[in-house]
Amino acid sequence: MKPTAFFVPLLLCNSLWGYGKNDRESKMNIVYIMTDDHSYQTISAYGGPLGKLAPTPNLDRLAAKGMLFQRAFVENSLSTPSRACLMTGLYSHQNGQRTLFGNVDTTKTFFSEILQQNGYQTAVVGKWHMRCEPKGFDYYQVLWDQGAYYHPEFKSKDTNGKYVRREGYATTLTTDYAIDFLEHRNTSMPFCLLVHHKAPHRNWMPEPKYLHLYENAEFPYPDTFDDDYNTRCRPANEQEMQIDKDMTIVYDLKLNQLKDTSPYNKEWNVKGMQASINRMNVEERGQWEAAYEKRYADFMKKKAAGADMKKWKYQEYLKDYLRCIKSIDDEVGRLLEYLEAHDLMENTMIVYTSDQGFYMGEHGWFDKRFMYEESFRTPLIIYYPQKKENSKCNALVQNIDYAPTILDAAGIEKPHYMVGNSLLPLLSGKIPAKWRRDIYYHYYDYPAQHKVRRHDGVRDSRYKLIHFYGTKKDPLDCNELYDLKKDPNELNNLYDDLKYKKVQQRLQKRLDEYRSALKVDEYNDK
Ligand code: SGN
Ligand code: CA
């Protein structure tokens, strides 16, 4: 690929900023990799049963070189809000991006702008998913909206605001652009590169070489697969993210042969799948149809119903999702190899995370949004040169910490208004005595797809309090309390259980304190 035009002005700026050799040598580079909807349950370094059947050797390699965070969370489990938290270091109500729609407040400074002002070259490739232009980036190649898996459209500084179709698979192309930036960067300046993969977002479309991977695998069912939501309040019962009812046969499970006759086919999901297939070239379409023909034959042969149908859907869902993860793992490996081959491991911090977690059939679900662990929690691996290898961290960390961490790695003090904390002190292996004891969560996107009600809450290292609220038109006021030590699957709501009166009071007090200290402006029906 040809070098892009932005390097020339950068060279000039570089000399204006007067970066000397010593400055350069002491500056840490940053590679921040963020996937879309990648669950910690599907990374083998985390040790769960799915990782054993579908290993992620390259992510494990990164974890072996660095630190695996076991309590990393988001503030608002949804893409656009999570990305706004990352860029601003602020909670959703502070940066304006509460839901998937609307705009982040662009008067807020993005950490990329601060890096630029401090002599960093900055780049973002892949899913941007905010309605503003990438702000504070010297180089970008970003997908349109959610982006497509096959031959997706990207926009860069060279395309005059237009999205241009690129030949290839999203995960590979995103890595190609990351390497393009690294290849053509000004090597006299430190860099920060954000690699934001589209995968494994719904509808989990594998690349051709993995269309048959895990074909004969039988994945274990999570303990909560048949959760009946009793003890929980209305939202857990009323959501629309159930594998048996809401996962579609055509769009999600790709049985395009069923056309309009299937009871599962609403018009949109037939059209959505067809549009995805129409993007493929003739060869890819042939490989795709051959692979899913097998699934179709199996579906027709089994004619499963009820509980069997739910299990069949789960198995096929996991195959596609894990095939997408295999490509991610390969491409993370390719990027690591590039960094190794170019002697960058000694002065580059590498972060791997996801914009939120995801349900792999827990509670019978796919998707995210809730404050329950699987969607609230994300994978997080940090490699930092010369720090302890193969270590694990149990401190409570959150995506508002990433901007301060990146700035800290660059030797820049975080601006006073950023609410998160740098994670670098944790990398020594000890949790500082003053580290936070609990974290705040807030989800706003209702009414919306999947019908998850608005809620906020607080979680400490053992307990979690969630408050669901509604609107004047659609009121709701209910609470849930969990003892995560005794009930890690969050099946037993202890709210108003007298044995937990003190715990409930303590968590309620913390929740009230967060709301008032952060000036949270909605948490009850309006
Ligand atoms: C799309 C998906 C939803 C998903 C949202 C948000 N539907 O709308 O299932 O919850 O994205 O995802 S689809 O029919 O378009 O696939 S997020 O990761 O961007 O927050
Ligand atoms: Ca996402």
UniProtKB/TrEMBL annotation:
- UniProt protein name: DUF4976 domain-containing protein
- Which family does the UniProt entry place this protein in? Belongs to the sulfatase family.
UniProt keyword annotation of RNA-binding present: no
PROSITE patterns reported for this sequence: SULFATASE_1, SULFATASE_2
Tell me where in this chain the N-sulphoglucosamine sulphohydrolase C-terminal domain is found.
Answer: 361-515
Q: Which Gene3D superfamilies match?
A: Alkaline Phosphatase, subunit A
Q: Does the keyword Hydrolase apply?
A: yes
Q: Which source organism does the UniProt entry give?
A: Bacteroides xylanisolvens
Q: Which GO terms describe its molecular function?
A: hydrolase activity
Query: Which UniProt keyword terms apply here?
Result: Hydrolase
Spell out the InterPro entries in the cross-references: Alkaline_phosphatase_core_sf (IPR017850), SGSH_C (IPR032506), Sulfatase_CS (IPR024607)
